[in-house]
Write a structure and sequence with these properties.
21% strand
């Protein structure tokens, strides 16, 4: 699981420089999460898929070079067209296939801020990366500000905006009948989260997103994280306890007037680094720096 988290997050943060990546060896793995609901794993954020008599409903789509493989994996499950594609946020490992799916007829849906960020060049300061604007064909054509519901494949699929979490455009999705929640990158199972401060992300919003999911989950709910294997309410709660503790530790250092470098030297994440910082792109240093920036805002 650690290796999976490392690979998916590293590639995700480097996107969309697809020409520098070799996706030829990537295979799409399909896992049935609940009756008619699947998780697809490849390179990038975990994909959600609902199939049934109404057609195919997809959550996120990884990278453009993987679109044919992803479409083939979906075709192995259903011969229905993909009618809707929901992006949980704007990062390239979740939206790279938008143009291909849109051209194939899918209606692309996302929060207002996802379209706004995809429409213009973005800059990620911590790794000095310019993210070019997406082509028009990749942009969401239906956007929303708070929440919306799809009545699809015998289910009510609620799409809920969670403000200022991983970014400023995150959504979590709740399949009410199937009892499945897709968290996007507001949940990194087994790894420290990526707080994209430059894109409106905030540690308090990230924690809030987790508790919003827990409020609608029960003991039997399957929870799909943005990266990592399928989890549940216990797994999400345990992860949130770690994140809350590191946030509290950092707040104490900020209240003492420490600089970012001084806070890093104080190692506020030390008790969790072996489990949550090894083999993940969000290593203790990067996470600590982003945590400091978030708490200091």
């Amino acid at each position: 699981m650690k290796r999976l988290c490392l690979i998916t997050v590293i590639i995700g943060l480097m996107s969309p420089v697809w020409a520098q990546q070799d996706f030829s060896a990537v295979q799409i793995q399909t896992i049935e999460v609940s009756d008619g609901v699947y998780m697809l794993i490849g390179a990038g954020g975990n994909i959600g898929l609902s199939v049934g008599e109404d057609g195919a409903f997809v959550i996120d789509d990884q990278y453009a070079p993987l679109s044919d493989k992803i479409m083939a994996a979906i075709a192995d499950i259903t011969n229905a067209d993909v009618n809707f594609l929901v992006n949980t946020h704007y990062h390239g490992d979740h939206t790279g296939g938008n143009e291909a799916f849109g051209a194939a007829g899918a209606v692309i849906v996302a929060h207002d801020n996802v379209r706004a960020r995809m429409s213009t060049d973005q800059f990620r300061e911590f790794n000095n990366q310019v993210i070019p604007a997406s082509p028009m064909g990749a942009l969401p054509i239906v956007t929303f500000s708070d929440e919306m519901t799809f009545h699809w494949n015998g289910d009510s699929i609620r799409v809920l905006h969670v403000p200022s979490a991983h970014t400023d455009g995150d959504s979590i999705l709740h399949f009410e009948e199937a009892n499945v929640i897709h968290m996007g990158d507001t949940f990194f199972l087994g790894c420290y989260p990526f707080i994209d401060v430059g894109s409106g992300g905030d540690i308090d919003g990230l924690i809030g997103a987790g508790y919003r999911a827990l409020a609608i989950a029960n003991a039997d709910t399957a929870i799909i994280p943005g990266h990592g294997p399928v989890s549940n309410a216990v797994g999400l709660s345990d992860w949130l306890d770690v994140i809350k503790t590191t946030r509290s530790n950092m707040q104490s250092l900020v209240d003492q007037g420490m600089s970012e470098d001084e806070a890093l030297a104080a190692r506020p994440t030390a008790e969790f680094d072996d489990e949550y910082g090894e083999g993940c792109f969000m290593n203790p240093e990067i996470y600590t720096r982003l945590l400091y920036q978030s708490v200091s805002m």
